[in-house]
Fold:
Amino acid sequence: DIQMTQSPSSLPASVGDSVTITCRTSQSISNYLNWYQQKPGKAPKLLIYGASSLQSGVPSRFSGSGSGTDFTLTISSLHPEDFAVYYCQQTYSGPAFGGGTKVEIK
Amino acid sequence: EEQLVESGGGLIQPGESLRLACAVTGFSVNSFYLSWVRQASGKGLEWVSVIYSGVRTSYADSVKGRFTISRDTSKNILFLQMNSLRVEDTAIYYCARVLDSFYHMDVWGKGTTVIVSS
Structure:
């Protein structure tokens, strides 16, 4: 099984900050890495697929990068509605989600 | 508009069975891969199962042999038959559409809650 390590688990930040979340896999997954946002009481929402492709309708302040085993999600300037939990997901082998990163108000 | 609506959740005793349904509108269940994902209270997301084209399916190790994913193309509904339920199966269950380029889930339902407790 491919192990996933998402960090940090908690990320205190302020509106306007640039934040970066990291997802690392135990073996190469090429670019089969997706990112989701989840707000309390809501279903997850797709942000980024294929490591760096922005899902339609998602603001351009969200970006993804990486390939192989190391990936990042960057929010260039936090808006109030961006405080949420973010999950990475590898779909190279037996889909699996990372443990999540809670972006919270500092 | 593409929409997924789950139903069938509830309170059930360990060892019993439950069938979840996911009613699909706006696209055909026959034209896309479809998946179930669950989330225990306060925990992260856990992939459960996927149905590909035809009858090919895949399951997480934690549910293999107990859960069965299927679809009714005439009613445009996705199902998850859950047998031999355990306390640790307690979660919100989401259905989601899966796109076959990077197997990313682009449309999600709101979820249905399953509580397994004696």
